[in-house]
Hints:
By secondary structure, this protein is α/β, with parallel strands linked by helices. The protein has helices spanning 34-47, 72-85, 134-137, 146-164, 173-178, 184-200, and strands at 24-29, 52-57, 92-103, 106-117, 122-126, 130-131. Strands 1, 2, 3, 4, 5 and 6 form a six-stranded mixed beta sheet that branches. Helix 1 (34-47) packs across helix 6. The two termini are 21 Å apart.
Amino acid sequence: MRKLKKNEYNVPKFSPKxxxxxxxxxxxxxxxxxxxxxxxxxxxxxxxxxxxxxxxGFEVDAGVPSAPIGDGIFTGxxxxxxxxxxxxxxxxxxxxxxxxFEIGENYLETTGAFVLDKSxxxxxxxxxxxxxxKIVSESIERKGSDEFRSKSYExxxxxxxxxxxxxxxxxxxxxxxxxxxxxxxSVITSAVQTALMCIRSPVYKF
Length: 206
């Protein structure tokens, strides 16, 4: 076997190790949104195609504003998953939180996923992020409490939806920004898939 150089790792190829796991996976998630539940289900079905996926959604207090800015995305997603683990028996616990990170003069909107398995392994990742359009960013208050800024962010999105969305009732801001070329559910699926890959990767066991 070739001797590894300094700072070089012999990393095994990723494998879901399907044969080592039961044929049915029980997933619980801290949301009752059918859109989010379906997006999470899609992520598991893609990575575990030979398994039956049973998924249930529950109302959970995330402890953050409904559209957090900054660290609240991580905190909220993690809190949802951890709260579920104390009250439910499952193979995976999934917390989802959408919000925005303030970067310079703009805001990067994304969805974070915190995934925890029954052995205690966990990972936090985000899906694709989009800088919000000017019609939104100019209306967000940059000072004040997290709760105040969050409400300002939600209000800015609602105002933009009423002005430019083809369907003002559609609450998918990602779809609104991209003319439905990218949608919120695809962002959620991507975030959950990436978190699952990190949990299964030996690199994150170091």
